Input
Amino acid sequence: MIDSHCHIAGPEFAGDLDAVVARATAAGLTHALVILAADDQPEIEQAQAVAGLWSGVRFSIGVHPHAAGKFAANPEEAARAVAAAIDGQPLTRGLGEIGLDYHYDFSPRDIQQTVFRSQIALARDRRLPIVIHTREAEDDTFRILAEEQAAEVPVVLHCFTGDRAMARRALEAGYDLSLAGIVTFPRATELQEVARLVPLDRLLIETDSPFLAPVPHGGTRNEPANVVQVAEMIAGLEGTTREEVAAATSANVVRLLAP
Output
């Protein structure tokens, strides 16, 4: 089983990273894709410690839309920062998470879009899969992905929380979807319908640790071992087994990210 998106190089895990890794491997995880922020030097440096503790980790590096405003004076500098971070981390297998977030609007929308475009261009140049964050920005996200020809490389909509129409739109565009612990929430009925809709060969599972702990771990710090609950929920929704979900979603990660 593979956690396709987690943030265990962050400060939330600095005190017990070895125990977190031990629980993940004990739960049957072989790999995890750890997301790094190119503008967060402590996180970039902590990646070495993560890799030293878990040989199965790989990395995806990008500038999150929340941080795009840091590059307002020169948006193209964001892609240069990502390129430098990728060059310094040989275990990089993806570019992201990148995209648009109009819920919080921590960065001006025009800057978010410019930074997003520049990173898609970098991903195409490096032939790296793109990990997408989109929140309340569906139309602009899909428009920019199309205009920048993002489908030349694999595209994953991480922590997908859209409805069935958005899921179909993503699948038709050739993108893959990743579901996190939200799918286990009792009120997430629309997302559970999405889980039934998405073919297993287009689906990834993730924790987005330390966020969004699944049932029954709600209110606690999330961690990669909890991706098991995501797999179990999807198995129940699709009428299959946890083992089949784990095998299929892991094969998808290998196909997309070549870990």
